[in-house]
Amino acid sequence: MNIKEFHYFHELVKYKNFSQVASFFNVSQPTITMAIKRLETELEVKLFVRDRSHKQLVVTPSGEQLDRHVTQILNELDVMKKELSRISSEKILFGLPPIIGTYYFPHVAPELLRAGLIDKLDIFESGSNEMLTYILDGTLDLALIGSITPIVDAKLDAKIFDRTHFKIAVSENHPLAKRNSVDFKELAREKFIILDDRFIHSIAFSKMCHANQFRPQIIHRSNDVHILKAMIKENMGISFLTELALPPEPGIKVLDIADDNQPEFLLSIVYRHSHVLTKLQQRLIEILPQKINL
């Protein structure tokens, strides 16, 4: 068996049509047929059967099982190609969620500059939820990722180096601005402006609402913290944000959440377990947790 046969097989599972797969790869139909027969002979299993009544190609249980393995193999090959192509460039594809980039990264940038790493970073911005996918598929080498529980995945190495709390942000003109803390259940009738599902905030927020047994009134979701803050200042609603994103700022009052059981915002350095770190990447990992200090 070879990689090309795996590609043929995987697409045949998807399309269930020999002619369509042959056209996709720009080869003859017998080429696809013979490739599948070779796989079946070598593995000593039947991968497809013909449903005569419906004139359809059906994937057998053995075929479904093989496709799960083939999918992993092809994904790993894709990751391998991406990683190998970047080794000689001495560039680090570095994931940085917007909140972490805005409020954490400036504290570490001077040390990265002194270490000669700043110009080696190709920074990619997205929410923490999306960032994990980009690490796993090889799009990124390393990332700083926010989570509410430790990241546990056999394919990843994740090292927590900071923890912060979530807070409630309200306008200075909001009635709650007279207080320093609030029980989350008191917010059941409030209008919320929150970050969208690309951010870990949405998961933490849902957990808090579920724990306090209310369905929140969400009037706006955004991927831009600055837009959220502008709307808060106009007293259009309140928000749920990590304290990392809430340094002292005119027009906004930050309240502690008084609940005993509440999620934390965990900050981790994450990379693939199979990834062999270059010297530059190792140096970056050494600097980040030591120098970030608000």
UniProtKB/TrEMBL annotation:
Domain HTH lysR-type as annotated: residue spans: 1-58
Matches recorded under Gene3D superfamilies: 3.40.190.290, Winged helix-like DNA-binding domain superfamily/Winged helix DNA-binding domain (1.10.10.10)
InterPro entries xref list: HTH-type_LysR_regulators (IPR050950), LysR_HTH_N (IPR000847), LysR_subst-bd (IPR005119), WH-like_DNA-bd_sf (IPR036388), WH_DNA-bd_sf (IPR036390)
Cross-referenced Pfam families: HTH_1, LysR_substrate
GO cellular component terms, semicolon-separated: cytosol
GO MF term (any one): DNA binding
Protein keywords: DNA-binding, Transcription, Transcription regulation
Protein family per UniProt: Belongs to the LysR transcriptional regulatory family.
The name this protein goes by in its record: LysR family transcriptional regulator
Source organism: Liquorilactobacillus mali KCTC 3596 = DSM 20444
